[in-house]
Amino acid sequence: LAKLGLPKSTQIIGHYAVIKPIGKGSFSEVKLAIDLKSGEKFALKMIPTEGIETDDRIKSSVSREVELLKLMDHPNIVRLHDTVDTPTHLCLVMEYVLGGELFDHVCKNYEQTTETDAKRIFLQLVDVVAYLHGNNIIHRDLKLENILLTELYPSPTGPIIKLTDFGLARFIDPSSPILTTRCGSEEYAAPELLINGKYDGRQTDIWSLGIILYVLLVGYLPFDLEPGQTKRQFYYKIAQANYKFPKPEKESGRRATISEEAKDLVKMILQSNPKRRATLDQIKQHRWLNE
Ligand code: ADP
Ligand code: MG
């Protein structure tokens, strides 16, 4: 520890020294850690495995997360390096992605970014989701908080993303793909998942892609529970796919200049009827992504 300039009180997990917290999710805390053997930095996702809040469902989803991450081999998916089991936590030792969440990036830098930046990010995301679905895996929690950037903005290479958080991901049987577990964030949830509770996870992942694309273009969510709005009204707006783009005459800066091609792609994806929603192939072929 002294050699690394770390205080004696540093928490040690396996052969990893915990440096500082870097993220928080619904069940877990993520910390920056150093491998005492190699000096390499990692992100340690610590999932509590004891206590009143931990039930069997969480435990099985954790082992699924580990199993799935082990199988993943894609440049835009976070790598799982190791796992450490402690009496109180299961720790996923993951590649450390230092640019932070796409969520914070959009909040802070929206006005300084361009539609081309949005396109670069979205293309990578479409590629990752095609990889997952091609392997009969659905993610079910695609959102800006679960997409990380490899470099701080502005970066010379342009934004490179890493998808993380496979806590809700699972395999599907393509011959009977219908699922009934309601999960994920409501802001990103497709109408059929939110309202009927029966859904094809590939189509709901694609809806989430549409929400992410909208945020990349506009800088805020298309559907958000507004003050004074009831949950029912909020769900109704999603069910109707009732979102709007900002009006150029009322807005200035980037929001006022979203291209018609980009809007058209959002429209093709955010279709409330999953049968009419764009498929990944249709998205890939869309002119906005090919110009
Ligand atoms: P949860 O399943 O509890 O939502 P996540 O896996 O999404 O947990 O991790 C929570 C947060 O921790 C993420 O939103 C992100 O900010 C941060 N984080 C997760 N994985 C990494 C990583 N590999 N590198 C850097 N930060 C990470
Ligand atoms: Mg998360």
TrEMBL record:
Active-site residues per Swiss-Prot or TrEMBL entry: D141 (proton acceptor)
Start and end residues of each Protein kinase domain: 16-289
Superkingdom of the source species: Eukaryota
Compartment annotation: Membrane
Cross-link for Glycyl lysine isopeptide (Lys-Gly) (interchain with G-Cter in SUMO2), residue positions: K143
Residues at which ATP binds: K45, E145, N146, D165
Protein name: 13483_t:CDS:1
Organism whose genome encodes this protein: Ambispora leptoticha
Positions spanned in the full protein: 508 to 798 of 798
